[in-house]
Write a structure and sequence with these properties.
Layout (H helix, E strand, L loop, with lengths): L23 E5 L5 E5 L10 H11 L4 E6 L5 E5 H17 L8 E3 L5 H13 L3 E3 L3 H4 L5 H10 L3 E6 H11 L4 E6 L8 H5 L5 H9 L5 E6 L9 E5 H14 L9 E4 L6 H14 L2 E4 L9 H10 L4 E4 L1 H13 L1 H9 L3 E4 L6 H15 L4 E7 L6 E5 L8 E5 L4 E7 L2 E7 L11 H7 L6 E9 L9 E6 L4 E2 L5 E2 L1 H12 L3 E7 L6 E7 L1 H8 L7 H5 L2 H17 L7 E6 L19 H7 L1 H9 L4 E3 L1
Parallel strand pairs: 3-12, 5-6, 5-7, 6-9, 7-8, 11-12, 13-14, 14-15, 25-26
Antiparallel strand pairs: 1-2, 2-18, 3-4, 9-10, 15-16, 16-17, 17-21, 18-19, 19-20, 20-21, 22-23, 24-25, 26-27
Helix pairs in contact: 1-2, 2-3, 9-10, 11-13, 12-14, 13-14, 20-21
Length: 616
């Protein structure tokens, strides 16, 4: 399907891009369940991830697979043929270290060429690896999360980019474990360069040939919102089938290898699976963005986007929000960013409508065409793509339809449609957690995603779905009325605009709904007319700030008069959500359950009342 539709009145048309034409089969089961699948089957896919590395090393040997910024600020490039040769060398090194599924490789540091090469080496010889959030080593006081992840997989070797930065965490959690460092190695055996000099033997390729679809490629950890992080098995079959689903959705990848500029962390499924393997399976290139979606680090992203023009671009909604002011102010950036761009993709959280509108406007002003904006739905357990929307929309939020090969099951649950999935991209189990695995699947073997969906158009199921909240996060008021937190959070952020960064919805067993609001303190400073360095608590009680939010809260309540949607009180919360405490997922969205648990004193104050509480 080539999406070249005229715009609505006053809008520019959408830039043409070749994507799938979804055709679905629908059947109805017992107890109101609905099953939806693509009519067209998923094509054959490789059995091994390494098959694709070998394929492109033969057919496009000198093409860049990965690039990152070196110490001198210039791009370091890794070609397909170099990636294969170095992966075989490192594969021999990992075999010599005696690694296995019961003693896998753990990678503690962020995205760079060394991380990429070790990942490719591990999957080449069939040894699992686990990329672990750097925050567990660098931003933690007691390294609790790192200790939990090590306890779950018991790694046989740990890699990190810098011994000085990561060494203290390793010394605390696993002092006897073997290490490998890019910088600061204590012995030659710990030096990445020496490992890279290992001569591969025939055993490396023998190990590669022994890999099957069931061979574990990696462990990815959940955020740990309901306890310790769980190690999700990601097999070769999961990743190979999922990347084929991706190519069958973004069909223009078959004609045009994707060019990516991306920062998404590889310890998370979006960055570490979809983005990491997307170039490998399509002969494309990934430029590793050393920026981050924050006001502090966005300048590095801007520099990279001025040099490299992506054809497919991903970010979390907050990342787009901090990028937009730079696009507004910098014509050179706008021109290069939109020049070759076929699609903008967002995930991890709902996109505010003002962000959507700004991206469409900037694209149209720069090129005369809007760029296709899309999103989808998935999870660590689904490798991750499961549903995707690639047809033009007039507003944010449509997550589309199941990919080829995925069966979507919708089960009525407390007035919602609980989402369940089955397909070759679904994890077989959690590592060494049989009881948790059993709970994750229903009686038909469908994975329980824990999300609710609603039809975009009940009369036309091909129109896709909208996210309808986390079923695990929804709650009842003391009247027994169910509250859907997902829709409330999205509506709140859209209504208040850029002054609100995140919100958690409270009210379980309470008489009414309240909101814990994480504001943008720079915007609060502008409202108050004071210096941005003002103490947050002083901003929270400033008359101008309180008056603005009280008026907005009244307006929101006027549009939502029912007890299940009317937010009666709010309170500002500081500091922002902490990833180390499980309050923020790696996708950039708030973990509501963790926030309410960790900030219980704010919840109590919200309902007992104080001079910091704002109410209608």
């Amino acid at each position: 399907m080539r999406h070249a539709v005229p715009g609505a009145k006053g809008q520019a048309p959408v830039r043409p891009v070749r994507c799938w034409t979804p055709k679905i089969d629908v059947r109805h089961g017992q107890n109101g369940s609905i099953y939806i699948e693509q009519s067209d089957p998923l094509p054959d896919y490789p059995e091994r991830i390494a098959d694709m590395l070998q394929h492109w090393a033969r057919h496009a040997p000198d093409r860049t697979l990965f690039a990152d910024r070196g110490p001198d600020g210039e791009w370091r490039r890794l070609s397909y043929v170099d990636a294969l040769e170095k992966a075989r060398r490192l594969g021999q090194f990992l075999m010599d270290c005696g690694l296995s599924s019961s003693a896998p490789l753990a990678i503690l540091s962020g995205n760079d060429l060394e991380h990429a090469l070790l990942s490719l080496a591990a999957v080449y010889i069939g040894i699992p690896y686990a990329a672990i959030s750097p925050a567990y080593s660098l931003l933690s006081d007691d390294f609790t999360r790192l200790r939990e992840t090590f306890g779950a997989i018991r790694p046989g070797l740990v890699f990190a980019s810098d011994a000085e930065r990561f060494g203290p965490a390793i010394d605390t959690v696993a002092p006897e474990i073997a290490r490998l460092y890019t910088k600061g190695a204590r012995t030659p055996e710990e030096n990445f360069s020496q490992a890279l000099a290992t001569d591969p033997s025939p055993a490396v390729d023998e190990a590669c040939r022994a890999v099957t679809g069931d061979t574990i490629a990696k462990f990815l950890f959940t955020s740990g919102s309901t306890g310790s992080p769980k190690a999700v098995i990601n097999s070769n079959r999961m990743i190979c089938s999922n990347q084929t689903m991706v190519r069958e959705t973004y069909t223009y990848f078959k004609d045009e290898p994707p060019m990516l500029v991306d920062w998404a962390p590889w310890h998370h499924t979006a960055g570490g699976n979809k983005l990491f393997y997307m170039p490998l399976f399509n002969g494309g290139t990934l430029y590793i963005d050393d920026g981050r979606p924050t006001r502090k680090d966005i300048e590095m992203t801007v520099r990279n986007l001025k040099e490299i023009a992506p054809t497919w671009y991903f970010n979390v909604p907050k990342g787009y929000e901090v990028l937009i002011p730079h696009l507004e102010a910098d014509a050179e950036l706008r021109k290069n960013f939109f020049k070759d761009l076929k699609m903008l993709w967002y995930a991890g959280a709902g996109m505010a409508q003002h962000t959507w509108d700004a991206l469409e406007r900037l694209a149209a002003e720069t090129t005369g065409e809007r760029v296709l904006l899309g999103t989808g739905l998935g999870a660590t357990e689904t490798a991750p793509a499961a549903l995707m929307c690639t047809w033009p929309q007039e507003q944010a939020g449509n997550i589309g339809l199941p990919c080829k090969g995925v069966s979507l099951k919708l089960v009525p649950f407390d007035g919602k449609l609980d989402t369940r999935l089955k397909g070759p991209n679904i994890t077989p189990s959690y590592w060494n957690a049989p009881e948790v695995t059993v709970e994750a699947f229903d009686e038909e073997g469908y994975y329980r995603l824990g999300d609710a969906l609603r039809f975009a158009d009940p009369d036309d199921l091909t129109a896709g779905f909208f996210f309808d909240g986390r079923t695990a996060e929804n709650f009842k008021l003391d009247t027994g009325t169910w509250v859907s937190t997902g829709a409330l959070r999205t509506g709140f952020i859209n209504y208040f605009g850029e002054v609100v960064r995140e919100v958690a919805i409270a009210g379980a067993d309470r008489p009414y709904i309240g909101a814990l609001v994480f504001p943008d303190t720079d915007r609060l400073s502008q409202l108050a007319g004071v210096d941005s360095a003002q103490d947050p608590n002083a901003l929270f009680t400033h008359p101008a700030v309180r008056a603005h939010f009280q008026e907005k809260l009244k307006g929101l309540a006027a549009n939502n008069t029912g007890s299940s949607t009317r937010i009666k009180r709010m309170i500002f919360v500081d500091p922002p959500p902490s990833m180390d405490r499980g309050e923020m997922t790696d996708k950039g969205s708030v973990n509501q359950r963790a926030v309410l648990r960790n900030r219980h004193e704010w919840v109590e104050e919200l309902y007992t009342g104080s001079d910091r509480v704002i109410e209608i």
